[in-house]
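Hello, quick one for you while I still have it in my head. My current little project is about how a certain protein chain folds up. You're getting the sequence in one-letter code plus the fold written as C-alpha cells. Would you mind checking whether the C-alpha cells look sensible for this chain? Here's the protein in full, and shout if anything looks odd to you:
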Amino acid sequence: MQTETIQLLLESLFSEKLGFEVLRFQPIKNSGSERMYFRVFTQNNSFIASYNNNLAENRAFFHIADAFDQAGIPKPQLLAVSNCEKACIQEDLGDESLFDRLMHHRQDEDFTEIIRPLFHQALDILGELQIEVDKTVDYGLCWPTGFFDQRSILSDLHYFYYYFVKQQPNLEINEYKLLAELEALSLQIATIPLNCFIYRDFQSRNLMIKNNQLYCIDFQGGRKGNFAYDVVSLLYQVKAGLPGGFKEEMIDYYSRKLNSKGFNTSEFLQHLSAFIYLRLFQVLGAYGFRGIIQRKQHFLESIPFALRQLETHLQDNPLPLELPALENLLRQLVRNNKYQSGKRIPAEKKLKIKIRSFSYIRGGIPVDGSGNGGGFVFDCRILPNPGREEKFRNQTGLDPEVIDYLKAKPEVTEFLSNVQLIIKQGVENYLHRGFTDLMVSFGCTGGQHRSVYCASMLTEWLKSNFDELKIETEHIEQGITFYHG
C-alpha cells in the first residue's frame, strides 16, 4: 500500500476513534523491520502510529500488549486499532531509548554508576514480565510461533549461516558437516526447559525512557522460552558494549531476583553461555541480511562489535558440544574479520545524489556537472501553486505554512509517491552497478514553492530509506544548499 493511502487510513482512525484531526505526519526510520511508523501531530499532542500488512504479527502484538497491561508492565498505551487490524495508534514516549542514554554517557568516568539504576530497573521489569505475562498470554496467538523450540533455534542458526556465513566466500568450511553440527546444537539447546515468557528482543533500543521510567516497545515476537535468553539479549547487546564486570554484576542481580521468586538459579547460570552463543549467531544473521545484503549502514557498523564479542566469548567459554566444524568457522570469522575497523562506508564510495529545485523561466533545467549527462527532471507546474495566494507570496517551500498547504493536496502526495517509486528504482540500480552520481531536479515557474517542497520531501525520504548515499540538495533560486552523508 502506498504511503499516502496509509496516511489516509490513519487520518480516518484518528478521526473515528480519537476525535482528532491530523495536522502532520513525520515518518520514523525503522531499519530492522517492514513495519511503517509515523509520529503524528494533532492540535495539542503527538502520537506514534504504525502500519503493518502482517495480520498474524499484528494480532500477536495486540494480544501481548493486553497481557503486559494485565501484568502491569510499562509500555506505551495502545489507543486505537483500525477495523482492518493493520494500523494502530500508541502513546508517544519521545525519542530517547536506553541505548541513546548509554551512548550519551559512554565516555563519562562514572558511566557504570549512571547506568546501574536503569539496568536494575530493566531487569526488574524483565523479571516481572517473564513470570507474570507467562500466566496470562495465549501462546497459540504468538507470532510466528508460540515456543522457542528446536525448530525456532535451528531457524536462527540457519539465519546466521545463510545470511552471514554464506555471504563470505573465502571461508574454508565443509558445508555438510557444518549444517549437521548446527542441527546438533539446536537439539542440545532445545533440551533446556521452557520456563517463562521471553520478549525475544529485550535490548536497549527497545526500552524507551520517559521521566527516567523505562517502557517496553516492539515485543510482538514474544513466546515461551528460557529465562537466560532475554538477559543475554540485554546485557550482551553488541553495540551497547557493557563492561564485562558490569555484565557479571547484573547477571548476579537477576539471578538473586529469580531465586527470590523460587526459581532455580543454578539452572539459569548453567545455560547462560549457550544462549550467549545463540544470540550472537542470531544477531550476526540479522546484520548479514540487513547490512551485507541490504546495505543498511547501522547493521554494517554493528558487525565488528558482534565479532569482537564472539571472539571474547569463544576464548572464555567452550561451545556447548564438541563441534569442530563450527569452532573452526568461528575462529576464521574472528581471525579474518574484514569488518573489524567498524568504519562507515567511505564518502568516495557512496552514491552521490544531487537534488535541485529550479525555475523554468529563469535559469531553466540545471546542468549536470558530474559528466553523467543529466538525470531525472520532474515538472512541478502540474501541481497546485501556493504562489497564487497572497499569504504565501513571500514564503518558500521550506516554510511550515507552505508545507502544510501542499501536504494537504492529494495530487501532490500522489505526485511524490510516483517520484519515490521512480527514484527508488534508479538508486537501487545505480548502487547495484556501482555508479557514483545521480541528479534529480524539480522545476516550477519561480523555483520558490512547489519545486522547493518536492526537492525537500525527496531528500527526507532518501535519508530515511537509504544509508549509503551522499546527498546535496540545492534550492537554486533561494541560494540555499544542504548536505547529508
Residues 341-345 have pLDDT under 50 and may be disordered. The two ends are 29 Å apart (CA to CA). The chain has three domains: 3-91, 98-335, 348-484. DSSP finds 15 helices and 14 strands in the chain.
